[in-house]
Amino acid sequence: xRRIDWIDYGKVxxxxxxxxxxxxxxxxxxxxxxxxxxPVFFFISGYLFSFSRNPVYKDFVKKRFxxxxxxxxxxxxxxxxxxxxxxxxxxxxxxxxxxxxxPLIGALLGNGSKLIHxxxxxxxxxxxxxxxxxYLLFKRIKHFWIGLIIFIxxxxxxxxxxxxxxxxxxxxxxxxxxxxxxxxxxxEKEFFRKSNVLYLIIALGILIWAxxxxxxxxxxxxxxxxxxxxxxxxxxxxxxxxxxxxxxxSWFGDANWIKYLSNNTxxxxxxxxMTFSFIKAVMVYILSIPLTVLEGKIGVNILFSVIxxxxxxxxxxxxxxxxxxxxxxxxx
Length: 332
Fold this sequence. Notes:
Number of helices: 14
Radius of gyration: 20 Å
Oligomer: single chain
Shape: globular
Order of helices and strands: HHHHHHHHHHHHHH
Distance between the termini: 21 Å
Structural class: mainly alpha
Protein backbone atom coordinates (compact mmCIF):
# COMPACT_ATOMS: atom_id res chain seq x y z
CA UNK A 1 0.00 0.00 0.00
CA ARG A 2 1.34 3.42 -0.99
CA ARG A 3 2.21 5.58 2.00
CA ILE A 4 -0.36 8.33 2.61
CA ASP A 5 1.41 11.51 3.70
CA TRP A 6 -1.51 13.12 5.51
CA ILE A 7 -1.87 10.01 7.69
CA ASP A 8 1.63 10.62 9.10
CA TYR A 9 0.75 14.21 9.93
CA GLY A 10 -2.50 13.05 11.50
CA LYS A 11 -0.74 10.52 13.74
CA VAL A 12 1.84 13.09 14.86
CA UNK A 13 -0.77 15.75 15.62
CA UNK A 14 -2.89 13.11 17.35
CA UNK A 15 -0.08 11.86 19.60
CA UNK A 16 0.92 15.42 20.47
CA UNK A 17 -2.68 16.11 21.53
CA UNK A 18 -2.54 12.95 23.68
CA UNK A 19 0.59 14.26 25.41
CA UNK A 20 -0.83 17.77 25.75
CA UNK A 21 -4.11 16.40 27.10
CA UNK A 22 -2.27 14.75 29.98
CA UNK A 23 -0.76 18.02 31.21
CA UNK A 24 -2.36 20.43 33.70
CA UNK A 25 -4.37 22.40 31.16
CA UNK A 26 -7.58 23.97 32.38
CA UNK A 27 -10.51 21.66 31.84
CA UNK A 28 -12.40 23.53 29.12
CA UNK A 29 -9.33 23.27 26.86
CA UNK A 30 -8.95 19.60 27.73
CA UNK A 31 -12.60 19.02 26.90
CA UNK A 32 -11.94 20.26 23.38
CA UNK A 33 -9.04 17.82 22.99
CA UNK A 34 -10.68 14.79 24.60
CA UNK A 35 -13.80 14.89 22.47
CA UNK A 36 -11.87 14.02 19.30
CA UNK A 37 -8.21 13.06 19.77
CA UNK A 38 -8.82 9.33 20.35
CA PRO A 39 -11.55 9.12 17.66
CA VAL A 40 -8.90 10.43 15.25
CA PHE A 41 -6.67 7.42 15.98
CA PHE A 42 -9.50 4.91 15.53
CA PHE A 43 -10.51 6.67 12.32
CA ILE A 44 -6.95 6.49 10.94
CA SER A 45 -6.70 2.80 11.88
CA GLY A 46 -9.92 2.07 9.99
CA TYR A 47 -8.76 4.15 7.05
CA LEU A 48 -5.57 2.10 6.79
CA PHE A 49 -7.25 -1.31 7.06
CA SER A 50 -7.64 -3.44 3.96
CA PHE A 51 -9.31 -6.84 3.62
CA SER A 52 -7.37 -7.51 0.43
CA ARG A 53 -4.05 -7.13 2.27
CA ASN A 54 -5.31 -9.32 5.12
CA PRO A 55 -7.18 -12.18 3.40
CA VAL A 56 -6.67 -14.75 6.18
CA TYR A 57 -8.10 -13.94 9.61
CA LYS A 58 -5.64 -16.16 11.49
CA ASP A 59 -2.65 -14.38 9.94
CA PHE A 60 -4.22 -10.99 10.62
CA VAL A 61 -4.73 -11.81 14.31
CA LYS A 62 -1.13 -12.98 14.66
CA LYS A 63 0.18 -9.81 13.03
CA ARG A 64 -1.93 -7.45 15.12
CA PHE A 65 -1.18 -9.40 18.32
CA UNK A 66 2.51 -8.82 17.65
CA UNK A 67 1.99 -5.17 16.76
CA UNK A 68 -0.43 -4.26 19.59
CA UNK A 69 -0.53 -6.79 22.42
CA UNK A 70 3.21 -7.54 22.60
CA UNK A 71 3.94 -3.79 23.05
CA UNK A 72 1.09 -3.63 25.56
CA UNK A 73 2.70 -6.39 27.64
CA UNK A 74 6.23 -4.99 27.53
CA UNK A 75 5.23 -1.37 28.16
CA UNK A 76 3.12 -2.56 31.09
CA UNK A 77 6.09 -4.37 32.59
CA UNK A 78 8.47 -1.42 32.21
CA UNK A 79 6.10 1.29 33.38
CA UNK A 80 4.82 -0.82 36.27
CA UNK A 81 8.36 -1.35 37.54
CA UNK A 82 8.96 2.41 37.24
CA UNK A 83 5.75 3.09 39.17
CA UNK A 84 6.50 0.44 41.80
CA UNK A 85 10.03 1.72 42.47
CA UNK A 86 9.50 5.48 42.08
CA UNK A 87 6.12 6.63 40.83
CA UNK A 88 3.97 5.53 43.74
CA UNK A 89 6.20 7.33 46.25
CA UNK A 90 5.88 10.82 44.72
CA UNK A 91 3.17 13.15 43.49
CA UNK A 92 -0.52 12.33 43.69
CA UNK A 93 0.05 8.56 43.93
CA UNK A 94 2.05 9.00 47.14
CA UNK A 95 -1.11 10.14 48.94
CA UNK A 96 -3.47 7.73 47.21
CA UNK A 97 -2.31 4.63 49.11
CA UNK A 98 -2.70 2.41 46.03
CA UNK A 99 -1.99 -1.32 46.68
CA UNK A 100 0.95 -2.65 44.65
CA UNK A 101 -1.25 -5.24 42.93
CA UNK A 102 -3.95 -2.85 41.65
CA PRO A 103 -2.06 -1.85 38.47
CA LEU A 104 -1.33 -5.52 37.74
CA ILE A 105 -5.03 -6.35 37.92
CA GLY A 106 -5.73 -3.38 35.67
CA ALA A 107 -3.14 -4.61 33.15
CA LEU A 108 -4.69 -8.09 33.08
CA LEU A 109 -8.19 -6.67 32.64
CA GLY A 110 -7.06 -4.17 30.00
CA ASN A 111 -9.21 -1.37 31.41
CA GLY A 112 -7.77 2.14 31.23
CA SER A 113 -9.30 3.25 34.51
CA LYS A 114 -7.28 0.55 36.32
CA LEU A 115 -4.00 1.16 34.50
CA ILE A 116 -2.77 3.43 37.26
CA HIS A 117 0.86 3.18 36.21
CA UNK A 118 0.26 4.02 32.53
CA UNK A 119 -3.29 4.92 31.53
CA UNK A 120 -2.67 5.74 27.81
CA UNK A 121 -1.88 2.18 26.76
CA UNK A 122 -5.55 1.17 27.12
CA UNK A 123 -5.73 2.14 23.44
CA UNK A 124 -3.62 -0.84 22.33
CA UNK A 125 -5.97 -3.42 23.82
CA UNK A 126 -9.05 -1.53 22.70
CA UNK A 127 -7.81 -1.25 19.10
CA UNK A 128 -7.02 -4.97 19.06
CA UNK A 129 -10.61 -5.74 20.12
CA UNK A 130 -12.01 -3.26 17.58
CA UNK A 131 -10.05 -4.74 14.69
CA UNK A 132 -11.04 -8.31 15.54
CA UNK A 133 -14.70 -7.34 15.78
CA UNK A 134 -14.49 -5.42 12.53
CA TYR A 135 -12.85 -8.28 10.65
CA LEU A 136 -15.32 -10.90 11.89
CA LEU A 137 -18.47 -8.80 11.50
CA PHE A 138 -17.76 -6.72 8.38
CA LYS A 139 -15.85 -9.19 6.21
CA ARG A 140 -18.91 -10.10 4.17
CA ILE A 141 -21.03 -6.97 4.59
CA LYS A 142 -21.72 -5.02 1.41
CA HIS A 143 -23.55 -2.06 2.93
CA PHE A 144 -21.24 -0.76 5.62
CA TRP A 145 -23.55 2.09 6.56
CA ILE A 146 -26.04 -0.47 7.93
CA GLY A 147 -23.36 -1.90 10.22
CA LEU A 148 -22.38 1.63 11.23
CA ILE A 149 -25.95 2.48 12.26
CA ILE A 150 -26.24 -0.79 14.19
CA PHE A 151 -23.08 -0.02 16.15
CA ILE A 152 -24.25 3.53 16.88
CA UNK A 153 -27.43 2.07 18.41
CA UNK A 154 -25.70 -0.78 20.26
CA UNK A 155 -23.04 1.56 21.67
CA UNK A 156 -25.75 3.96 22.85
CA UNK A 157 -27.70 1.20 24.59
CA UNK A 158 -24.56 -0.14 26.23
CA UNK A 159 -23.49 3.33 27.40
CA UNK A 160 -26.97 4.14 28.72
CA UNK A 161 -27.88 0.89 30.45
CA UNK A 162 -24.60 -0.86 31.30
CA UNK A 163 -22.78 0.86 34.21
CA UNK A 164 -20.01 -1.76 34.38
CA UNK A 165 -16.64 -1.57 32.66
CA UNK A 166 -16.07 -4.82 30.79
CA UNK A 167 -12.64 -6.45 30.44
CA UNK A 168 -10.30 -5.44 27.60
CA UNK A 169 -12.04 -2.06 27.20
CA UNK A 170 -14.90 -3.82 25.40
CA UNK A 171 -17.42 -1.06 26.24
CA UNK A 172 -15.17 1.56 24.68
CA UNK A 173 -14.40 -0.72 21.73
CA UNK A 174 -18.07 -0.72 20.75
CA UNK A 175 -18.02 3.08 20.54
CA UNK A 176 -14.57 3.16 18.91
CA UNK A 177 -15.88 0.82 16.21
CA UNK A 178 -18.06 3.69 14.94
CA UNK A 179 -15.01 5.81 14.12
CA UNK A 180 -13.09 2.80 12.77
CA UNK A 181 -15.91 1.95 10.35
CA UNK A 182 -16.22 5.64 9.45
CA UNK A 183 -12.52 5.66 8.52
CA UNK A 184 -12.82 2.51 6.42
CA UNK A 185 -15.86 3.88 4.59
CA UNK A 186 -14.18 7.21 3.85
CA UNK A 187 -11.24 5.40 2.29
CA GLU A 188 -13.52 3.23 0.16
CA LYS A 189 -15.45 6.31 -0.99
CA GLU A 190 -12.16 8.19 -1.59
CA PHE A 191 -13.68 11.10 0.30
CA PHE A 192 -10.52 12.64 1.74
CA ARG A 193 -8.40 13.23 -1.35
CA LYS A 194 -8.21 17.01 -1.39
CA SER A 195 -8.39 19.60 1.37
CA ASN A 196 -11.47 21.78 1.59
CA VAL A 197 -11.36 25.02 3.52
CA LEU A 198 -15.15 25.14 3.87
CA TYR A 199 -15.23 21.68 5.49
CA LEU A 200 -12.36 22.75 7.75
CA ILE A 201 -14.13 25.90 9.00
CA ILE A 202 -17.51 24.21 9.49
CA ALA A 203 -15.91 21.25 11.26
CA LEU A 204 -13.95 23.53 13.59
CA GLY A 205 -17.10 25.45 14.49
CA ILE A 206 -19.04 22.25 15.23
CA LEU A 207 -16.09 20.87 17.22
CA ILE A 208 -15.87 23.95 19.46
CA TRP A 209 -19.66 24.10 19.91
CA ALA A 210 -19.97 20.40 20.75
CA UNK A 211 -17.05 20.38 23.20
CA UNK A 212 -18.34 23.45 25.08
CA UNK A 213 -21.85 22.07 25.25
CA UNK A 214 -20.85 18.52 26.11
CA UNK A 215 -18.04 19.07 28.61
CA UNK A 216 -15.75 16.34 29.88
CA UNK A 217 -15.15 13.15 27.89
CA UNK A 218 -13.09 10.20 29.15
CA UNK A 219 -13.17 7.57 26.46
CA UNK A 220 -10.98 5.12 28.38
CA UNK A 221 -13.68 5.07 31.09
CA UNK A 222 -16.45 4.80 28.49
CA UNK A 223 -17.75 8.18 29.66
CA UNK A 224 -19.01 10.65 27.05
CA UNK A 225 -21.50 12.93 28.81
CA UNK A 226 -23.98 13.41 25.96
CA UNK A 227 -23.33 10.43 23.70
CA UNK A 228 -24.58 12.04 20.49
CA UNK A 229 -22.72 15.29 21.10
CA UNK A 230 -19.58 13.21 21.57
CA UNK A 231 -20.12 11.44 18.23
CA UNK A 232 -20.77 14.77 16.54
CA UNK A 233 -17.71 16.40 18.10
CA UNK A 234 -15.56 13.36 17.31
CA UNK A 235 -16.62 13.32 13.66
CA UNK A 236 -16.13 17.11 13.36
CA UNK A 237 -12.68 16.83 14.95
CA UNK A 238 -11.73 14.09 12.49
CA UNK A 239 -12.80 16.16 9.49
CA UNK A 240 -10.96 19.19 10.88
CA UNK A 241 -7.72 17.28 11.51
CA UNK A 242 -7.82 15.47 8.17
CA UNK A 243 -8.18 18.75 6.27
CA UNK A 244 -5.39 20.36 8.30
CA UNK A 245 -3.17 17.37 7.52
CA UNK A 246 -4.04 17.47 3.82
CA UNK A 247 -2.85 21.07 3.72
CA UNK A 248 0.32 20.24 5.66
CA UNK A 249 1.18 17.30 3.42
CA SER A 250 0.65 19.41 0.29
CA TRP A 251 2.86 22.18 1.66
CA PHE A 252 5.68 20.16 3.23
CA GLY A 253 5.42 16.72 1.62
CA ASP A 254 6.68 13.55 3.27
CA ALA A 255 9.00 15.11 5.87
CA ASN A 256 11.32 12.48 7.34
CA TRP A 257 10.92 13.65 10.94
CA ILE A 258 7.15 13.42 10.60
CA LYS A 259 7.42 9.86 9.32
CA TYR A 260 9.84 9.02 12.15
CA LEU A 261 7.45 10.24 14.84
CA SER A 262 4.49 8.67 13.05
CA ASN A 263 6.21 5.28 13.06
CA ASN A 264 6.85 5.51 16.80
CA THR A 265 3.60 6.81 18.28
CA UNK A 266 3.27 3.66 20.41
CA UNK A 267 6.53 4.46 22.20
CA UNK A 268 5.47 8.07 22.78
CA UNK A 269 2.06 6.98 24.03
CA UNK A 270 3.51 4.36 26.34
CA UNK A 271 6.37 6.32 27.86
CA UNK A 272 5.55 10.04 27.79
CA UNK A 273 4.18 9.96 31.35
CA MET A 274 7.61 8.76 32.49
CA THR A 275 9.16 11.81 30.81
CA PHE A 276 6.58 13.92 32.68
CA SER A 277 7.97 12.59 35.95
CA PHE A 278 11.52 13.36 34.86
CA ILE A 279 10.70 16.93 33.80
CA LYS A 280 8.83 17.62 37.03
CA ALA A 281 11.70 16.19 39.10
CA VAL A 282 14.12 18.54 37.33
CA MET A 283 11.77 21.48 37.87
CA VAL A 284 11.32 20.83 41.60
CA TYR A 285 14.64 19.39 42.76
CA ILE A 286 17.13 21.11 40.45
CA LEU A 287 15.56 24.32 39.21
CA SER A 288 13.36 24.92 42.29
CA ILE A 289 10.36 25.73 40.10
CA PRO A 290 7.04 24.90 41.77
CA LEU A 291 4.67 22.67 39.81
CA THR A 292 1.93 25.24 40.32
CA VAL A 293 3.34 27.11 37.31
CA LEU A 294 1.80 24.36 35.16
CA GLU A 295 -1.72 24.61 36.52
CA GLY A 296 -4.13 25.88 33.89
CA LYS A 297 -1.46 27.56 31.75
CA ILE A 298 -1.79 26.95 28.00
CA GLY A 299 1.61 28.24 26.84
CA VAL A 300 3.60 26.55 29.60
CA ASN A 301 1.91 23.20 29.06
CA ILE A 302 2.38 23.41 25.29
CA LEU A 303 6.11 23.85 25.95
CA PHE A 304 6.03 21.08 28.56
CA SER A 305 4.48 18.72 25.99
CA VAL A 306 7.09 19.59 23.36
CA ILE A 307 9.90 18.88 25.85
CA UNK A 308 8.25 15.57 26.71
CA UNK A 309 8.13 14.59 23.02
CA UNK A 310 11.80 15.55 22.60
CA UNK A 311 12.76 13.43 25.60
CA UNK A 312 11.01 10.48 23.97
CA UNK A 313 13.40 10.63 21.00
CA UNK A 314 16.40 8.96 22.72
CA UNK A 315 14.06 6.29 24.00
CA UNK A 316 12.68 5.75 20.48
CA UNK A 317 16.22 5.39 19.14
CA UNK A 318 17.25 2.99 21.90
CA UNK A 319 14.20 0.73 21.60
CA UNK A 320 14.35 0.54 17.82
CA UNK A 321 18.09 -0.20 17.77
CA UNK A 322 18.61 -2.44 20.79
CA UNK A 323 15.28 -3.92 21.85
CA UNK A 324 12.67 -3.59 19.06
CA UNK A 325 10.84 -6.64 20.47
CA UNK A 326 9.30 -4.22 23.01
CA UNK A 327 7.15 -2.81 20.23
CA UNK A 328 6.70 -6.07 18.35
CA UNK A 329 9.39 -5.45 15.75
CA UNK A 330 12.34 -7.54 14.66
CA UNK A 331 16.00 -6.59 14.75
CA UNK A 332 17.11 -5.05 11.48
